[in-house]
Specification:
With 314 residues, the chain is α+β, with helices and mostly antiparallel strands. It has helices at residues 5-40, 47-54, 57-77, 86-92, 99-119, 121-131, 141-165, 173-209, 306-313; strands at residues 223-233, 238-247, 250-256, 265-272, 277-281, 289-293, 298-302. The protein has a seven-stranded antiparallel beta sheet with strand order 4-3-2-1-7-6-5, covered by helices on one side. Helix 1 (5-40) packs antiparallel against helix 7 (141-165), helix 4 (86-92) packs parallel to helix 8 (173-209) and helix 5 (99-119) crosses helix 8. InterPro entries: DBL_dom_sf (IPR035899), DH_dom (IPR000219), FYVE_RhoGEF_PH (IPR051092), PH-like_dom_sf (IPR011993), PH_domain (IPR001849), SOS1_NGEF_PH (IPR055251).
């Protein structure tokens, strides 16, 4: 008799989970443990660096080896009288949120491995020594570190496939569909964590360019647009190069600093978005110009093209 399709997928889930737990064991019990031991002896890198590289891998390893894998194994042994995995995955899904931290930290972790391999020959030697072992299968530490990042998308694909292959009357249908939705939410959660981290990093870079002025630095701000602009002086009919940063709550009108030490720009004017008015001007002498007015002042600005002007106005 042929195995039903959904059972094949459930078995694939179990097999990949076993291989994944071995990979986590390698990361946590071998790489992390041995690097930590050497760091404690003061021989390779600071302990903090090792902790940052491996993030919360220990919790992830414990969870999969002590909870998820045994639950799956038990379920597959009982498959003939209880053919279902949806409920087990539902129990598991909320814990997968702990991946958010690992995934968010991943780029930084890989960068630390590279930086400290150059800085500390003993660190590099120890990593190389572990990589030569049979258990590493000729793959680098960075390659193994990528595995947890890819695991949740893998669950998603397998579970999607499983739900698709379930017969309509299957007792597991409701649970499996619910489990798939939960896994989807977890994947979204970890992507949102990455997006939020990138937003804050980019925002911090902008604040540095502005000289980290106290009243401007706010983590909840969102940068919408930035770029050079010409300021029109009606007094002497000339233009001068300025720079704009548009946030969700304010427009910063800046002057590029000549001395390139520290901040790149000096903030000359700040207009609150609440009371700001914007309109296009039809000026034959200066095409693509628009007016931005705040409570204190009105600026006459010229963009480099019509598209650019429209983008700013929008």
């Amino acid at each position: 008799m042929q195995e039903p399709e959904e059972k094949k997928i459930a078995l694939e889930l179990l097999e990949t989970e076993q291989a994944y737990v071995n990979r986590l064991h390698l990361l946590d019990q071998i790489f992390y443990t041995e690097l930590m031991k050497e760091a404690k002896n003061g021989k390779t890198v600071p302990e903090e660096v090792v902790k940052m590289i491996f993030s919360n891998i220990s919790s992830i390893y414990q969870f999969h080896s002590k909870f998820f894998l045994p639950e799956l194994q038990k379920r597959m042994e009982d498959w003939s009288c209880n053919p279902r995995i949806g409920d087990v995955i539902q129990k598991l899904a909320p814990f997968l949120k702990m991946y958010g931290e690992y995934v968010k930290n991943f780029d930084k972790a890989v960068e630390l491995v590279t930086v400290w391999s150059e800085k500390s020959p003993p660190f590099q030697e120890l990593v190389a020594d572990i990589q030569k072992r049979k258990v590493c299968a000729n793959l680098t530490l960075q390659h193994h570190m990528l595995e947890p990042v890819q695991r949740i998308p893998r669950y998603q694909l397998l579970l999607k496939d499983y739900v698709r292959k379930l017969p309509p009357e299957s007792p597991d249908r409701d649970d499996a569909e619910k489990a798939l939705e939960m896994i989807f939410m977890v994947a979204k959660h970890s992507n949102a964590a990455i997006a939020e981290m990138e937003r804050l990093q980019n925002l911090w870079v902008v604040y540095q360019r502005l000289g980290l002025e106290d009243d401007i630095v706010d983590p909840s701000n969102e940068l919408i647009k930035e770029g050079p602009i010409q300021k029109i002086s009606t007094r002497n009919n000339s233009t001068s190069e300025k720079y704009l940063f548009l946030f969700n709550n304010m427009l910063l009108y800046c002057v590029p600093r000549v001395i390139q030490v520290g901040a790149e720009f000096q903030v000359h004017l700040r207009i609150n978005v609440d009371s700001m008015k914007v309109r296009e001007l039809n000026d034959a002498q200066f095409p693509n110009t628009f007016l931005v007015s705040g409570k204190q002042r009105t600026l006459e600005l010229q963009a480099r093209s019509e598209e650019e002007m429209n983008a700013w106005i929008k």
